[in-house]
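Residues determine shape. We examine one folded chain.
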Amino acid sequence: MNSAVQVSRAMFGEEHRIFRESVRRFVEAHVVPHYVRWEKDGHVPRSFWREAAGAGLLGPTVPEEYGGPGGDYLFNVVVLEEIVRVGATGLGGISVHNDIVVPYFVDYATEELKNRWLPKMVSGDAIGAIGMTEPNGGSDVKALRTTAKRDGGEYVINGQKTFITNGQCADFVLLAAKTDPGAGAKGISLFVVEAARPGYRHGRQLDKIGQHAADTAELFFDSVRVPTGNLIGEEGKGFAYMMEKLPQERLAIAVIAVAQAESAYRWTLDYVKQRTAFGRTIFEFQNTRFKLAEIAAEIAIGRVFIDNCTKAHLTGELDVPTAAMAKFWCTDMACRVIDECVQLFGGYGYMREFPIARAWVDARVQRIYGGTNEIMKELVARSL
């Protein structure tokens, strides 16, 4: 497994290596000591976002002219992998901020919106969220009911969103709404909606079975007025923009899934070599070694595949079906692997103080969000 992984990781250069060392030190010092408390609190404090910004974890790909370092997507990958390495999957809000929201601004927003928001997203003074999912829509983005009606120099927004990561703490949400309800997908537009606007209302923080540190909420929009300048790109192009950006979101989910499987494998290997039963270590039992061999093989396959997808993304060649494959295969694989690892931990694998237990519940949602794995398979099937 190691040789295959090392070959596939050759795409990372010296700058990425230095950045990884820096991020790892930051995570060990500023995440690990506090993460259990954040899980109990159900959110990550605002102060952490500013600390993360100071360490370069926010907006690594934001161009220099907007206050960022102008790095490539591999810097985002480093942030994801180092957070997951310590089992802090509940920090998924950083991925939403970096991997989902930032690209919409960089590629589609006006200069005014870029200059207003991107520097603040890099500094941690503005946290972003994205509002696609609705209570009755799930993965069916075309079926959204939130509307944005033009009224002079403003749009009036009414509707509801759910399962919104960073929902309580976000300073703005990148909102998908119908500007022409009769036009189907061509009637969807994207808007920047500031949380401070009248009519923008936070619902309850959702009680999830995993990823407890991730702030996930319902949002309500009651005649919220935003200026026409808050439109992202062109009116009616929102669905097309989302389809262009969803491959990166799904790639990020797959990156996290593989990193989770690798962490689970590492924790389990250490555990079975120390834990004894019937006078020998658990590792000495043939069943344990065979299970670990199978896990190692699955992770190696996932690692090579996802790194190849990442390379394709860097050159603009990652297409929708391949990103969908990566999302469903890697998240399914992570759930299989982590479940096997929990079994090898025995009773301790079911105890929440062990990171393997948290990983088990945290991983499950990845087969759902970003488009369910069933939808991913349908996307692949359409391309056959």
The chain has twelve helices and ten strands.
